[in-house]
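Note to self: keep these together.
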Amino acid sequence: MTVSLRYAARSDVGLVRASNQDSAYAGPNLLVVADGMGGHAGGDIASRIAIASLRGLDAGIHTPDAALSDLEAAVESARMGLVRASAAKPDLAGMGTTVTALLRTGSTLVMAHMGDSRAYLLRDGALSQVTVDHTFVQHLVDTGRISPDEAEHHPQRNVVMRVLSDFDLDLHPDMSIREAKVGDRWLLCSDGLSGFVHADLLGEILAEADDPGEAADLLLLAAMRAGSTDNITVVVADVVDDDDAPDAAFVADDAEAPVASVGGIQVVGAAATRGPIPGAVAPDDDTSGDTGGQDDAPRDGAPSADRGDAPDRDDERDGGHDDDGDDDGDDGDGDGDGEEDADPDDADARPAARRHPVVASLVTLAVLAGVGLAGWGGYRWTQQQYFVGVADGQVAVFRGLPASAGPLTLSQPVELTGTLVADLPPFFAARLDGTIRASSLEDARTRAQRLIDQALPTPTASPTPIPSPTETPAPPPEEPADEGAPPDEPADVGAPPPAEPAG
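Structure:
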């Protein structure tokens, strides 16, 4: 039996970061998550290079043995791409990226893993973490110096010991071969998800979601509600029988998580942005990598790979005016208005088009009204959400989302349980970070009480022994009197025997 992958990819900049340095790729035969690191520009470049180097594998057909070597070679190619980029642009030196990739070949999956982006497998309702983090904290766990529970909140849990980087180090990915079993659901994610959402909730979401698209959306929401301070990227894929495979893949549509979709392929995060990569082998390399001869012309609404990055030859000749019909909104006159200004020295120049003031006003009002309605709808939605958290030092039920938008807090406590968080064991206290979501107020109450009961179980009272009826002890039997004693005088049974006569 041959199998296929049904997949969805999502990425979001998160609640804190100013830019998205994560990248992900999802195609019929290849799934990749890359979490870039290295400063303002280096991280996104590094993750883009990783995707560009690996995506060409999606078009090929591999045997399991060839897939293993091809995937490892592609990871090494990505490392060399980082080296070239740093050499071409020295301020990128020190950049790196995690790589977690699954390459399908028939009913087999080949995996490459470096860093702390994770792969999880949901099989028969049970979630297991397939990859092992290459972090300092995981090393402490492996050597028995701390427990897995302590690792979840260790202050150095984000210190990565092995990543794809531009350093001249002999570091290799973990390579493995796994079975692609119908019914399996895979999750690849950056630590913006796994570092903030407990595995129990990940398993619950993956098990309950109807399809990969819904699961990916819910996982993003869970990370947001948990207050993730990092970029969040997820790829969810179902292993299905070929007869059940859909004609098209799910495609995200989120302004904060741009998607470039070519032939059902999804590229999200930094890799979806367009622009040259420093040190790329081809001058116009823009994360397309080796696509197996595929045309990079935009489809399904994806932006052109080369737009907005460098003027074309016609633009250079006409002084920068954007008249080539690429709709990038930049007319080259520096005012950013998207309209070509009339040249006063050109007698044939026509005045720039003007919008009718009434029409412009109506359009503006319509836009403002739409934004207002969307904002009100979003607020109403938040007021239907509940979670368990901490208020006034107590376990509390909250309405809303555990996040803020500028000075506004998107949640408020509605009930205090009276249980002090200080009385809870550390593991249970740490779970009160907004990740215990609920579908209603009653559900939130139930979940709060369940956590309290688990953390502070009521001790079972030991049964009090029932005293037996008091029995009057029988008097000791009387010793028989000596035959030689007087009748009314008891025999002296304790007296020593008479002394032997002397001599």
